[in-house]
From TrEMBL:
Keywords: Membrane, Transmembrane, Transmembrane helix. This is Beta-lactamase regulatory protein. PANTHER family: RFBJ PROTEIN (PTHR48090:SF7), UNDECAPRENYL-PHOSPHATE 4-DEOXY-4-FORMAMIDO-L-ARABINOSE TRANSFERASE-RELATED (PTHR48090). The chain crosses the membrane at residues 194-213. Residues 9-120 form the Glycosyltransferase 2-like domain. Gene3D superfamilies: Spore Coat Polysaccharide Biosynthesis Protein SpsA, Chain A. InterPro entries: Glyco_trans_2-like, Glycosyltransferase_2, Nucleotide-diphossugar_trans. Pfam families: Glycos_transf_2.
Length: 229
């Protein structure tokens, strides 16, 4: 996958989130080819990995970053769609949208629908695929925003906070390659992680009442009356 991205001419940042399977040895070879590698010893979760990746991208002078899962789910062939979309929507959070939900494992389908529901409650916007990690983040428009949660629910948190900040959110059609049943390695722990996600959604819903809705309303008023002082 890294070779495919390098072939497009894009700069690549790989965050090694505490892998213990020999990934570090492989990445040393890629580092000699110009790949930026961010590594740390202990698995800290996707939210932490995103924060470290964003920090490195900004330090390198980039104002946008595309995130892809390294397990082969996301297709490099879809990258041009994000490039084309960001040219039209330069300040938008671009979120991949799986084109065929029926290909999604049953557990993923339920979790995605639940996530879509809570996103709509918290932002008064509708998206069909809030759990897709294939995204383009407009770092300059996000102005230093980093996930407060360290695990995989950080992606939902970032989408909600971008909506509260008034950033456009645009869906980009993508394909997804799922591993055969039983062939995918995951750190997801159903009981503990669903509890943590439920707590996050409770917190985001409460914050929507006291901050999210008012801030979105103020931005809408200002946008409709830009010259009123």
């Amino acid at each position: 996958m890294i070779d495919e991205v390098l072939a497009t001419g894009a700069r690549v940042i790989v965050v090694n989130d505490g892998s213990t399977d020999g990934t570090a040895d492989v990445l040393r070879g890629y580092a000699r080819r110009g790949v930026e590698v961010v590594a740390y010893a202990k698995n800290r979760g996707k939210g932490y990995a995103l924060s470290r990746g964003f920090d490195r991208a900004e330090a390198m002078g980039f104002d946008r970053v595309v995130t892809m899962d390294a397990d082969g789910q996301h297709s490099v062939a879809d990258l041009p769609r994000f490039v084309e979309a960001t040219a039209v929507h330069p300040n938008a959070l671009l979120m991949g949208r799986r084109t065929v939900e029926g290909e999604m494992p049953q557990g993923n389908t339920f979790a995605n629908r639940l996530s879509n529901f809570w996103f709509a409650v918290q932002t008064v916007r509708r998206l069909r695929d809030t759990q897709n990690g294939f995204r383009l983040y407009p770092l300059s428009a996000m102005r230093g925003m980093r996930p407060l949660t360290s695990r995989y629910e950080a992606e939902l948190e970032l989408a909600v906070r971008c909506a509260w900040r008034g950033l456009p959110i645009v869906a980009v059609p993508v394909t997804v390659n799922y591993a055969p049943r039983g062939g995918r390695v995951t750190h997801f722990r159903p009981g503990r992680d669903f509890l943590r996600i439920s707590l996050l959604n409770t917190a985001l819903t409460l914050l929507a009442l006291v901050y999210g809705y008012p801030s979105m309303l103020v931005r809408r008023i200002v946008r409709h009356h830009p010259n009123d002082q």
